[in-house]
Amino acid sequence: MGAESAQAQRAIVFVPFPAQGHVTPMLHLARALAGRGGVAATVAVPDFVHRRMGQQDGDAGSRVALVPIPSGVPDDGGDEEPPGFASIAHAMEHHMPAHLEGVLARAGRGAAVACLVVDVMASWAVPVAARCGVPAVGFWPVMFASYRVVAAIPELISKGFISRTGTPLPLSTNGINEAVNKHQQIGDLHILPAKLELNTSDLPWLVGGAASRESRFAFWLRTVDRGKSLTSILVNSFPGEGAGDSDRYDPPPGQHFLHVGPLFGDELLARANSAATMWRADSTCIDWLDRQSPGSVIYVSFGSWVAPIGQDKIAQLALGLKAAGRPFLWVLRNHPSWRAGLPDGFTETVAGRGKIVSWAPQEDVLRHDAVGCYITHCGWNSTLEAIRHGVRMICYPISGDQFVNRAYIVNMWEAGIALVGTDCDCVKDCIGRAMKGGEEGRRLQDNVARMREAILAGEARSIAKRNLDLFLEGIENDDTKIQQPKSLEPPARSIIIRALAREQRNTKPKSKMEKHMAQTLIETDRRIPNALRIAFGLCQRPPPAPG
């Protein structure tokens, strides 16, 4: 009983955004903290995630429990496509908060929960922490560079890079919009190094059609607004992120950031089931790799929860892989929306040289000697895994933070090649450049090795371990950087009410962006009452009833 029994009362609850690329690093974080002793960790996920992963959380002795939160989203938990973004966002805002309060009560086992660790993209949990009086910190599971982009949304709007609904705007010259370049360079704002060559087409909410983009932008506005109440954020990345000293920028003001990644590299995780996944992996691909020559195989995977790249692109990519004449292992979900684009007879034509599986044990694949390069969507977990196992990359981002990651891989680290299109000749050319033993291939491999050394064996690992210890010490000592979030109204309503109050008093907004953000939220959130729409002139006041 003694100190260990007292410490065991330090219950920490973790709330990830419900996608594989977010749940995995959150589990790694929970295991890393629980492995230090004195922590009872509870990772709370929606029921549709738990149905896929609930049997894989048997970390004996790790004090990590994976528990479900009812979401109200229909899902059988099988190998079918998971719920879409709109369904997930609705569940997080309207169904899951009340159930999380119950999780917090149970996790404390009669005592107060020491801390709630919230994925910044699961910002719906921040008001729950405020209502329950629980200290909360944020967790950013991807590159810190992506956080800088999202945090700069007000600046992007005020300086004319994007509209109030997140749409990229062309350059303006002498008051006249002229598409001098199709998209403006984000580097001009000094948010990120100019060397990355990022532009406004690379922003994380630009997914799908206009309605999808506006909805996702409203989601990011809510995320930014709620995130302001988090005084500390743990980041699953390493200091500097491979940029030179002259390309480093100060973090956004008002918050404390602790780099704790890459989390998979901690030796504590080697004893854990760190390969937990929402999908059943096809282990036959390892036997197939065993029969291939060292460094000969092209591994192709575009992640688990991203939209298919489209039937035409699937067809062109297939033809490019065939034309390259090299062995390949392609992860392509066994679903019509993913495989319908394969050319007729393709699997028979490439039989023996190519293998297609619905899901692969990715860490095992990337560490295999037969794998020579990786055609990737540039998800952060996949990027880190490729670097960890010394695999050069061919980069084809699809959505979200992947465009920022691609810019670092290709332009900053020079550890990969950009695949600018999926047409047959382009795919064949990129594979040839990456796989050949010439100067470019050797340079890519040398740079991957350099990055591996930087993030796994250098100062970054010491900093990550120290920051994890500092975080736990902060919980024990009631550090002011780990505190209860301020009481929050639902963000859309709070932003609108603030802006309306200032307008009615004829006073200047506290921020130049306050009214713009309010208008954007009104325009994109159907739940906003008509009275608020009328006040902002976005719809007409109904005529008085006759008589």
Sum this structure up briefly.
The protein is of the alpha/beta class and 547 residues long. The chain is built from 23 helices and 15 strands.
Structural notes for this entry:
By secondary structure, the chain is of the alpha/beta class. The protein has 3 domains: 10-143 and 232-274 and 459-476, Glycogen Phosphorylase B (Rossmann fold); 284-452, 3-Layer(aba) Sandwich (Rossmann fold), CATH 3.40.50; 489-547, no CATH class. The chain is built from 23 helices and 15 strands. The chain has helices at residues 2-7, 20-34, 47-53, 85-94, 96-107, 125-132, 144-151, 153-158, 210-227, 267-270, 284-290, 311-324, 336-339, 346-349, 362-366, 380-388, 402-412, 424-435, 439-457, 459-476, 491-504, 514-524, 530-535, and strands at residues 11-15, 40-46, 64-69, 115-119, 136-140, 172-173, 176-177, 232-235, 256-259, 297-301, 328-331, 354-357, 371-376, 392-395, 416-418. The strands form 3 sheets. It has a 7-stranded parallel beta sheet, with helices on both faces. Helix 9 (210-227) packs across helix 22. The protein is globular and about 60 Å long. The model is unreliable at 173-181, 265-274, 488-497 and 536-541 (pLDDT under 50).
